[in-house]
């Protein structure tokens, strides 16, 4: 154990996940690469943790942040804040939410917490529908609605949460059904649930489950759910913390693949928009956002320096069509990874959309998860200069690939070749 690792262990919580037997200290980055304290270079196929959306040390973001920091870092929400208004205007437009209001937070957890506050106040109900296997953050309320059991065994959240089938297509009671029958079964399950409870305030769902192993329901599930939700006046909250900003390639927001009936009632976002700066937030139509009878502040939400990062990062993303790049390069990468895993009896599935690709490992010939092999693949890839992620909670045997959206074809080929060797070496 090196000195920093030892000091980390003595002062930080045991439950703070740390990758690798010999954890890395990353000291700098550029483009799709990062370097550790020993000077080793790595291709970053996890984009920080889906936070480096465009590229490490993107010059426009660095310039915007340093210029803003030289003028003013923060003034609080008690005063008018030009970059905050400008970023809110752009996100409101991009969200397509009618008469949208945007509230900035410092994390995805706080964004979801705010969405829950809004939904429960608006609907006057503290019952929430959430998806099995979901992850929504680690505040008291977010853990309380998180379906991924690995994260919430100790929660005593006062929210009543009802878990809905459908987030995971490949496991669970309806796994053998085709897509249409699967959606019909999940809708019946939802109706059945609603027949036995006070009307919940909202359904919260990740369009593609992130921590849960990059699993996606069949397209159309949330549109079918919505018809049922509308009949009960239940709000639909899309947690776009991992799926927003074009990461899934075909769509700017993950919900667009699943629900053609227009935007959800509430959208939450974080991770990539600040390119590593702590920017999260909530979009909701004004009737919902303004239902709180409060006169409140957010001390660090929307600080000038983080908003400057968000604006520069979003401008770069749109001007360089990084969503299109995610679709094209992601399409190629998933094909390469499928080919690499084709003969591997321990790979159950290579799945994904755009630059959000999961490789699920199971013990050969069984349905049993194989977290030891996943950890071994991470180590083997790292030894060859490639960083990837894995799922959390009960999805730790899913390898997660989510590079910055500017990934080049050559980098995709290089990373796929390393992963192919890492898979072969750990069979
Ligand atoms: N929602 C989703 C879908 C997430 O993946 C995460 C984090 O991984 C969160 C919420 C929580 O975000 P944060 O870690 O910024 O609090």
Automatic annotation (TrEMBL):
**Source organism, top-level taxon:** Bacteria
Does the record bear Cytoplasm in its keywords? no
In terms of Pfam families, this protein maps to: Aminotran_3
Q: Which UniProt keywords apply?
A: Aminotransferase, Pyridoxal phosphate, Transferase
GO MF annotation, one: transaminase activity
> Which CDD domains is this protein grouped with?
OAT_like
Family note: Belongs to the class-III pyridoxal-phosphate-dependent aminotransferase family.
Quaternary state and interactors: Homotetramer.
- What is the protein's name according to its record? alanine--glyoxylate transaminase
